[in-house]
Design brief:
- Keywords: Oxidoreductase.
- InterPro entries: KR_dom, NAD(P)-bd_dom_sf, SDR_fam.
- It holds the Pfam family adh_short.
- The protein has a 7-stranded parallel β-sheet with strand order 3-2-1-4-5-6-9, with helices on both faces. It has a two-stranded parallel sheet with strand order 7-8.
- 45% of the residues lie in helices and 15% in strands.
- It has one domain: NAD(P)-binding Rossmann-like Domain (Rossmann fold, 3-Layer(aba) Sandwich), CATH 3.40.50.
- The longest helix is centred in the middle third of the chain and has 29 residues.
- The chain starts with 8 loop residues before the first strand and ends in a 14-residue tail after the last helix.
Length: 264
């Protein structure tokens, strides 16, 4: 599928709107051919036509519901078999409103399928394929609620904490393989996810809401700078570095032969 002067093929999930659609534009501008995946085939085809005309790249669209295992398996197999794919953007995801105690648990199960299980399966397939080729990039879209779960509902926050942890562990596993890994932790970003989850985004203070274009541009800048974790709205990188340092300082004491004195 790769064009003559292509940077390779980027597989983008959740590509029909919001963050995924902006990533598709930015990656096409960088010379990537695209495999765009989402449920809304009409929007995908419209976007593909525009991207081909503007950037001269090849764009394939694939209608898939990534809450359905059979669709995930097809995409997973494509990642394992198509050597032209060298970038995976795990972007597709949903949010949910309300308290866990009052939640529609079937809805939460679908959230977990998309935000956790699908992300894991696709990252696994990409890691195997990319490591074998000795190159490639895996970008997982998490959220700042992974760092501050008390600010949002339990299931969504937990799903994004999983994505953060998965990315950190995967990065360690892929060390020395030539594969780059990044987790992006946006704050509130102006996309359709809020309306779809029943959340009134107009009630969120305007100075907390970032436009999707600015978010993606910051995330790609972080990728270019070699960041494992990119938090687009965080002004002082030293705050994240202190967070990481505190975690590593605890590490030697997290598993010991005896309980801490305060428990005796």
């Amino acid at each position: 599928m790769t064009s003559t002067q292509s940077q390779g093929t980027a597989l983008v999930t959740g590509a029909s709107s919001g963050i995924g659609a902006v990533y598709a534009q930015r990656l096409a501008a960088r010379g990537f051919d695209l495999l765009l995946v989402a449920r809304d085939l009409q929007r995908l085809e419209e976007a593909a036509s525009q991207l081909r005309a503007k950037h001269g790249v090849q764009v394939e669209v694939l209608k898939a519901d990534l809450t359905q295992k059979e669709d995930v398996l097809k995409l997973e197999q494509r990642l394992r078999s198509d050597s032209s794919i060298n970038l995976l953007l795990n972007n597709a995801g949903v949010a949910a409103d309300g308290l866990l105690a009052n939640a529609d648990t079937d809805q939460l199960e679908r959230l977990i399928q998309l935000n956790v299980t699908t992300v894991t399966r696709l990252a696994s397939a990409a890691a195997a394929s990319f490591a074998k080729a000795g190159r490639g990039t895996i970008i997982n879209i998490a959220s700042v609620v992974a760092l501050f779960p008390e600010r949002f509902n339990a299931t969504y926050s937990a799903s994004k904490a999983y994505v953060l942890s998965l990315t950190q562990s995967l990065n360690a596993e892929l060390d020395g393989t030539g594969v780059k890994v990044q987790a992006v932790l946006p704050g509130v970003t102006r996309t359709e996810i809020w309306e779809r989850s029943g959340i009134d985004a107009t009630q969120i203070p305007a100075d907390m809401v970032m436009e999707a274009g600015e978010m993606v541009d910051a995330a790609l800048s972080g990728l270019d700078q070699g960041e494992l974790i990119t938090i687009p709205s965080l002004p002082n990188l030293s705050e994240w570095e202190s967070y990481v340092a505190a975690r590593h300082a605890m590490a030697p004491n997290l598993s010991r032969s005896q309980a801490a004195a305060r428990y005796k």
